[in-house]
Amino acid sequence: MNATADRLRLILGDQLNASHSWFQHTDPQTIYVIAEMQQETAYVKHHVQKVCAFFAAMTQFATALESAGHRVMHLTLDDTKPFERIDDLLNHLIAEHHITHFEYQLPDEYRLRSTLERYCLSLSISSQVYESEHFFLSETQIEKEFKPNHHHRMEPFYRKMRKRFNILMEEGEPVAGKWNFDSANQNKLKPSEFDSVPTPLLFANDVTDILKRLERHNVSMIGQANNQLLWPVNRQQANELLVFFCRYCLPLFGKFQDAMTCKLDDMLTQKEWSLFHSRLSFALNAKILSPMKVIDAAITEFNQRQDAIDIAQIEGFVRQILGWREFVRGIYWRNMPDYQNLNKLEASRSLPSWFWTGKTKMNCMHHAIQQSLDFAYAHHIQRLMTTGNFCLLTGIKPDEVDEWYLGIYIDAIEWVEMPNTRGMSQFADGGIVASKAYAASGNYVNKMSDYCSDCHYNVKQITEPKACPLNALYWHFMHTHIEQFNNNPRTRMVYANWNKKSEEQQQVILDKAKLLLLEIEGL
């Protein structure tokens, strides 16, 4: 590589979009820098598979750009060790290569966006910022669609997006005459249906060198490490996984997208963690795949195989990407930085230590956490209605919940994690994201899974010694926050049932919950 260049372009680890306009033409006077930074491994304690996946994907992307004729500087932790911050590295590269112009794409975390904005103000050379060219909505469109500190609802936003981008529409109306088939997406997976679950497509990316590098630099991480990384780390693999999902998972995706099970695996196969889910979220959030490409592929499969894929399956999938994914991004950017400090329910309890080990007698929590530690993945209901519900009911500090979710999941980047966690899951935003707190007793877990049948606790009991902790904790939560939720039409029936209990019955339940909270480390 020549010593000098006119322009330096920074590519972050979640900006691996080969279709970006930057790459339409090669320019020998432009250097692209892709850098592993210690600061990005340390702002929370990440899952080892998450760090390996990002570092491996960055390596693959750098190689692809070089093959396409671009000048690329791929720097590992070994190369960037002398530089504590990204600013220090950039200053060094600008001086070393006599750069006269600096460019970057808008980061999708407020922390990094603020850092680079301040950095550019300090430069004596010119700079320019670009959009990532990945999402459906531009930054300007987000400002028009979302208001700060405003109670937004996903359903009308989702319908507007369907119309705007003409997705699953016929002559201005939704395909099949209905916008949302969520009611058909809430089925429990029965033993008779186990054989329909496909064995997941896994990759075997060698990350031995990355693991050694992480150990060499004393990077503190969580989770199960393996020299062979199962996640897709380049476009070819991501496209293979997309094809696999459309062919083998989409036909039953919607029907079982909320289901959970612990009775499916055997000595030869592990399918409980994947079920019918696409597992494309890492490839999407790293921008290896575009959301439009994913939706187009799924709809094409639906159109070609309507005998095997009904509307409820494809609509449920489209809703997650076109609706929810774009919705939470809008919420994040229109409410930061204040959003990260919201704690409307004044939750103040510390996260139990067993969130880092999975060692709990609650079978639902054990499986959701252990799966997360093993695979850096759990599907949305495990996150929202299992681990998230427990944190909500027990009043865990939102900062600690955010940190756990942001660290443990391979697809967790703050723009998508925080509104899902602090908003949808913990109601810490007071209803900016959700119209109610998603609190549930053990009955919900029993309805959507087979966890309860093998549990130490009895899901049918409330106050007995081995009663499911979620039951008393649920009533305690609803009682504690009666002022916030009593007038909400969606919880009116809950309080009507609570009020049917005598004061003595209520007190026994509340006392049981208080004991559980005192003994939270031993649950």
Notes on the protein architecture:
The protein is of the alpha/beta class and 523 residues long. Helices cover 46% and strands 7% of the residues. It folds into 3 domains: 7-130, 3-Layer(aba) Sandwich (Rossmann fold); 139-339, Alpha Horseshoe (Serine Threonine Protein Phosphatase 5, Tetratricopeptide repeat), CATH 1.25.40; 457-522, Arc Repressor Mutant, subunit A (Orthogonal Bundle), CATH 1.10.10.1710. Strand 6 (169-170) and strand 7 form a beta hairpin. The protein is globular and about 80 Å long. This is Cryptochrome/photolyase family protein.
CATH architecture of the largest domain: Alpha Horseshoe
Structural class: alpha/beta
Estimate nothing, just give the exact number of structural domains: 3
Helix content: 40-55%
How do the helices and strands line up, and which of them pair or pack?
Layout (H helix, E strand, L loop, with lengths): L6 E5 L18 E6 L2 H5 L5 H20 L3 E5 L1 H4 L5 H11 L4 E5 L4 H13 L3 E5 L8 H7 L8 H12 L3 E2 L2 E2 L30 E2 L1 H9 L11 E2 L5 H19 L27 H5 L5 H14 L6 H25 L27 H13 L4 H15 L3 H11 L5 H12 L16 H7 L20 H12 L1 H4 L6 H9 L2 H16 L5
Parallel strand pairs: 1-2, 1-4, 2-3, 4-5
Antiparallel strand pairs: 6-7, 8-9
Helix pairs in contact: 7-12, 9-11, 9-12, 11-12, 12-16, 13-14, 14-16, 14-18, 15-16, 18-21
